[in-house]
């Protein structure tokens, strides 16, 4: 076999695949954050906890009710999304007339509550969640070995991200949403129920996080802290990309995942911080973010 | 741009133009001092020193949020890195405690300058996210760096001798030193808030475009208050490392950043004395509820939610409204 820059291709492509998978999660989570921010003007700090809830609810469905992975993939976003709707109606909706920072503080508090409750109930050691048998095994692509499940994660997240982009940019519902982001009062005057649109948007963003959680369950151990560290990296992704553009969030998410993977090959010590370094550079060169609108 | 029209429930600062400290503030400071001098004979000194360090930490954080209007979600970076540097200085370089603490404080100021100059390029929510992300970078650095001891942290840091003379090993000796450091820190913060610099900060907080149009170099003021806040947070962290003879990853983790936000929110953002009260309550709660494990996190979350929904002025903020006096 040939070597690329002294790195065996299996290692290179293996890390790139890993990067692509991390990128899938960055993309799905930052997309949810961007959609919620667009309409609600709050940063949903609970997003990481809701991603974790997604993985846990999938585990519960399997272990308490015997519902397998495929059912969870449909049911979990609905269940966790519904909790999001309740949270928005009961709590977040009381803060719209206040400074955005209160939304951040409230959702941070909610994240502490949810994480703490799961930690009490299930400990922090992590629970195993089996891979669906249909996706076990893998393909030998010649230059690398591709586990089926990992390929599936990348494929599905791409489909979900592009589907979300399509709904928001190309459909009537999406047009309402974009209009309400620009000018909620005007859209309300045209007879569209803006508060309901806001509630559903929050529910959808949360469902997206939960869906990512189900996808993550068979790869990472299901544990209460899985969302907390991830969400901070996703915040950096959001700062780098800027939250102005849906497609921008998706591209930034996958791109940064790949860069992280490459760093792990060439300079492993830097892989944990590379995204933050990129954030610093972006802040210096283009403070509004790569796809952001200048403030 | 909504970031310019702050609707944070922040009180006015003192009496603009008034000279000297108002009498009731003098009384509170003296009362605090009297209480603090008696306390070590009643309560466990190490617990009290923890309260003092966190009170200073929260006041330093409040300087940035309450008076600069900047919500940093990564203040653990300065608290924690100062704690590492001060522990390293005391243990490896063998410096006396006061020099170790100064070294730690300086390190936090430098870090604050580096992160602050990047973070002030964004506003509002983005500012919070940027500071949080950089703090996480400092955390990852602390996990990997050779001198931090990874998961173990820097343990059994010597308390040493103050000025090379007075042994700091007895808890009470150390307590009075810590009290002096913290009290000095609080007075510095008080002075900053009520200086002309502090008044400009408040103007920027309340209406940034107007401050710009009045000719103030807003970014310089923001950076200055950021560095001051980071340095004072570092002073708290460096002192804490000497007290507990330990610097660990807990001090740089994001949960620590969250705790200081909670202390300030609970006590009263933008009040002079609120963060001290908030810090005392949260530290006492952690101390007495420690046996409940993860429930402490849940309770903290609940306090967050209640504070934001019902109680945005905080304890001292509400009290100050009743008494009709700025506290």
From TrEMBL, chain A:
One of its GO terms (molecular function) is transmembrane transporter activity. It comes from the Bacteria. The keyword Cell membrane applies. The chain crosses the membrane at residues 12-37, 73-92, 101-118, 149-168, 200-223, 230-259, 265-285. InterPro entries: ABC_transp_permease, BCAA_transport_permease. It comes from Allomesorhizobium camelthorni. This is Branched-chain amino acid ABC transporter permease. It is found in: Cell membrane. It is a multi-pass membrane protein. PANTHER family: ABC TRANSPORTER ATP-BINDING PROTEIN, BRANCHED-CHAIN AMINO ACID TRANSPORT SYSTEM PERMEASE PROTEIN LIVH. GO terms for biological process: amino acid transport. Keywords: Amino-acid transport, Cell membrane, Membrane, Transmembrane, Transmembrane helix, Transport. Pfam families: BPD_transp_2 (PF02653). The keyword Nucleus does not apply. Belongs to the binding-protein-dependent transport system permease family. LivHM subfamily. GO terms for cellular component: plasma membrane.
From TrEMBL, chain B:
InterPro entries: ABC_transp_permease, LivM-like. Its main location: membrane. The keyword Acyltransferase does not apply. The chain crosses the membrane at residues 27-44, 51-79, 99-118, 125-143, 174-193, 223-248, 260-285, 292-311. It is found in: Cell membrane. It comes from the Bacteria. The keyword Transmembrane helix applies. CDD domains: TM_PBP1_LivM_like (cd06581). One of its GO terms (molecular function) is branched-chain amino acid transmembrane transporter activity. One of its GO terms (cellular component) is plasma membrane. Keywords: Cell membrane, Membrane, Transmembrane, Transmembrane helix. Pfam families: BPD_transp_2. It is a multi-pass membrane protein. This is Branched-chain amino acid ABC transporter permease. The lineage of its organism: Bacteria, Pseudomonadati, Pseudomonadota, Alphaproteobacteria, Hyphomicrobiales.
């Amino acid at each position: 076999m040939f070597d690329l820059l002294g790195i065996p291709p299996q290692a290179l492509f293996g890390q790139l695949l890993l990067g692509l998978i991390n990128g899938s999660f960055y993309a799905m989570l930052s997309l949810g954050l961007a959609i919620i921010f667009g309409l609600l003007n709050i940063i949903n700090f609970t997003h990481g906890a809701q991603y974790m809830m997604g993985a846990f609810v999938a585990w519960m469905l399997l272990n308490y009710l015997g519902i397998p992975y495929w059912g969870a993939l449909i049911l979990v976003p609905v269940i966790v999304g519904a909790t999001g709707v309740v949270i928005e109606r009961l709590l977040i909706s009381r803060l719209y007339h206040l400074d955005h920072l209160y939304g951040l503080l409230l959702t941070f508090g909610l994240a502490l509550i949810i994480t703490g409750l799961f930690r009490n109930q299930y400990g922090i050691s992590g629970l195993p969640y089996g891979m669906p048998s249909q996706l076990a095994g893998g393909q030998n692509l010649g230059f690398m070995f591709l586990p089926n499940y990992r390929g599936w994660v990348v494929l599905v997240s791409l489909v979900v991200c592009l589907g979300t982009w399509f709904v928001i940019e190309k459909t009537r519902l999406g047009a309402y949403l974009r209009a309400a982001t620009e000018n909620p009062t005007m859209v309300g005057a045209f007879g569209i129920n803006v508060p309901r649109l806001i509630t559903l948007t929050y529910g959808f963003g949360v469902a997206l996080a939960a869906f990512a959680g189900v996808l993550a369950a068979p790869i990472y151990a299901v544990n209460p802290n899985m969302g907390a560290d991830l969400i901070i990296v996703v915040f950096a992704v959001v700062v780098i990309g800027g939250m102005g553009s849906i497609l921008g969030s998706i591209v930034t998410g996958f791109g940064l995942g790949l860069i992280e993977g490459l760093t792990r090959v060439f300079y492993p010590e830097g892989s944990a911080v590379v995204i933050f370094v990129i954030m610093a550079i972006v802040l210096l060169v283009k403070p509004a973010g790569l796809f952001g609108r200048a403030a | 741009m909504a970031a310019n029209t702050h609707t944070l429930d922040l009180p006015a600062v003192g009496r603009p133009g008034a000279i000297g400290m108002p009498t009731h503030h003098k009384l509170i400071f003296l009362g605090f001092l009297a209480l603090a001098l008696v306390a070590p004979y009643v309560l466990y000194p190490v617990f009290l020193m923890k309260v003092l360090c966190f009170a200073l930490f929260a006041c330093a954080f409040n300087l940035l949020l309450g008076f600069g209007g900047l919500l940093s979600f990564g203040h653990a970076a300065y608290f924690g890195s100062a704690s590492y540097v001060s522990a390293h200085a005391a243990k490896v370089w063998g410096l006396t405690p006061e020099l170790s603490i100064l070294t730690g404080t300086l390190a936090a100021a430098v870090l604050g300058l580096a992160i602050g100059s990047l973070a002030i390029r964004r506003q509002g929510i983005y500012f919070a996210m940027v500071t949080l992300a950089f703090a996480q970078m400092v955390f990852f650095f602390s996990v990997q760096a050779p001198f931090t001891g990874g998961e173990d942290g820097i343990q059994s840091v010597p308390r040493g001798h103050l000025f090379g003379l007075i042994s700091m090993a007895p808890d009470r000796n150390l307590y009075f030193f810590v009290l002096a450091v913290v009290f000095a820190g609080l007075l510095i913060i008080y002075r900053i808030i009520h200086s002309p610099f502090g008044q400009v900060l408040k103007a920027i907080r309340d209406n940034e475009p107007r401050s710009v149009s009045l000719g103030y170099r807003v970014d310089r003021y923001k950076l200055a208050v950021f560095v001051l806040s980071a340095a004072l947070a570092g002073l708290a962290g460096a002192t804490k490392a000497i007290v507990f003879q330990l610097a660990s990853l807990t001090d740089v983790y994001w949960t620590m950043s969250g705790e200081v936000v909670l202390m300030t929110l609970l006590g009263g953002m933008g009040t002079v004395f609120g963060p001290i009260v908030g810090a005392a309550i949260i530290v006492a709660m952690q101390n007495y509820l420690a046996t409940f494990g993860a429930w402490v996190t849940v309770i903290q979350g609940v306090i967050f939610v209640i504070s934001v929904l019902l109680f945005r002025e905080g304890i001292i903020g509400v009290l100050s409204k009743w008494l009709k006096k700025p506290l």
